[in-house]
Write a structure and sequence with these properties.
Layout (H helix, E strand, L loop, with lengths): L4 H8 L3 H14 L3 H11 L19 E5 L7 H18 L2 E5 L18 H4 L14 E3 L2 H10 L9 H14 L4 H14 L5 E6 L17 H14 L4 E6 L2 H11 L3 E2 L23 H17 L3 E5 L2 H11 L7 E5 L13
Parallel strand pairs: 1-2, 1-3, 4-5, 4-7, 5-6, 7-8
Length: 347
């Protein structure tokens, strides 16, 4: 009995994985190199977007739903991915809609006013009728990678064109929630006031592990030496220290005494475990972890000078500072290179 290939294919449509495998295997066995190259290229093509239709609203627009990466990425790693996706949306003529869901590291079940983590901290970027819209597509990891490649960005590297592009989308789309902005401005007035303050960001905790392709941790001795120089050179009035590490905080206080200003209401670690993964019995704990690192960046961006090792926090403090009327007198980046190890980040 001869098998009707057409009828077989119709039956296999109920099992798409099997159908795809059989079609692919046939192409490979017959030496269809064009198909193989097409599959390799198109699988990871960031511009090959799958358009879904949920209704008839927003005709004439293609809505680009930007989701979180998840995977345990920290606040500003997620924020950077968001900016990459906003740049992609601009280049492609898409209308962005941002939804950070329960895969986000700072998703908090205690927050009731929204289930969108992005809207914990920022004014919404959204289309009200998303799931009644005619044309909707969703972000994947490939759009993020595409923007990195387009601007020749690897790991913690940067360049002027790239930073200018990020600042453009920040100015167009990013707005802090008004209550957070008011709170942060009060902190600026309290800690900085009219004084010339040196901002220091010093990462500890999991930086001690030396993750592969992550920055080599800056020593406290390095930080103190440069801080002394900058205090004297620019006649600064004090220091605002943002650190995730209790031991590092204590070492700076031991050396600089009452010149050190810091937030006392934050969680700091005493080991090589990131505070982003710390579980503490306080209400809205995960929300507060995000708020605290965002507050650090905001205050660091308002200081007279910045001293830091490589980190997402210092990168964005500098980016936000460039959007201020007053720029840093000096941004001293302590760069010890990147780790080359067999220790890998795995949330």
């Amino acid at each position: 009995m001869k098998l009707d290939s057409g009828k077989l294919e119709e039956k296999l449509k109920a099992h798409p994985y099997v159908l795809f495998a059989s079609k692919s295997l046939r192409r490979i066995l017959t030496g269809d190199i064009d198909y193989v190259n097409f599959a390799i290229e198109e699988y990871s093509n960031p511009k090959r977007l799958s358009i879904k239709t949920y209704g008839d609203e927003n005709r004439g627009k293609i809505i680009y739903c930007i989701k979180e990466q998840g995977m345990g990425y920290g606040f500003f790693a997620e924020f950077l991915s968001l900016l990459h996706n906003l740049v992609f949306a601009e280049e492609m003529g898409l209308v962005p809609h941002v939804t950070w869901g329960n895969g986000h590291l700072y998703y908090d079940e205690d927050i009731s006013f929204t289930d969108n983590v992005y809207e914990y901290y920022f004014e919404p970027i959204k289309i009200e009728d998303l799931y009644r819209s005619k044309n909707v597509c969703f972000s994947t990891v490939y759009q993020n990678e595409y923007i990195s490649n387009e601007y020749n960005i690897t790991a913690y590297a940067s360049n002027d064109d790239y930073e200018q592009k990020l600042m453009q989308v920040i100015q167009k789309y990013i707005r802090l929630r008004s209550e957070l902005l008011n709170e942060f401005d009060k902190d600026v007035e309290k800690i900085l006031g009219n004084h010339k303050i040196l901002g220091i960001h010093h990462r500890g905790t999991d930086y001690k592990k030396g993750y592969n392709c992550h920055p080599v941790m800056v020593s406290v001795e390095q930080g103190i030496k440069q801080a002394e120089r900058m205090l004297n050179q620019y006649k600064l009035d004090g220091i605002f220290l943002a650190t995730d590490d209790q031991e590092i905080l204590e070492q700076y206080i031991d050396y600089f005494g009452n010149k050190i200003n810091f937030f006392s209401d934050v969680i700091r670690g005493s080991s090589d475990v990131s505070i982003a993964f710390a579980e503490k019995p306080r209400k809205c704990h995960h929300y507060n972890l995000g708020k605290e690192v965002l507050r650090d960046v905001y205050l660091l961006s308002k200081c007279a000078c910045l001293l830091s090792g490589k980190s997402r926090v210092s990168f964005f403090a500098n980016v936000f500072n460039q959007l201020n009327e007053k720029h840093y007198l000096e941004y001293q980046l302590l760069d010890n290179g990147m780790n080359k190890s067999r220790v890998y980040f795995n949330a």
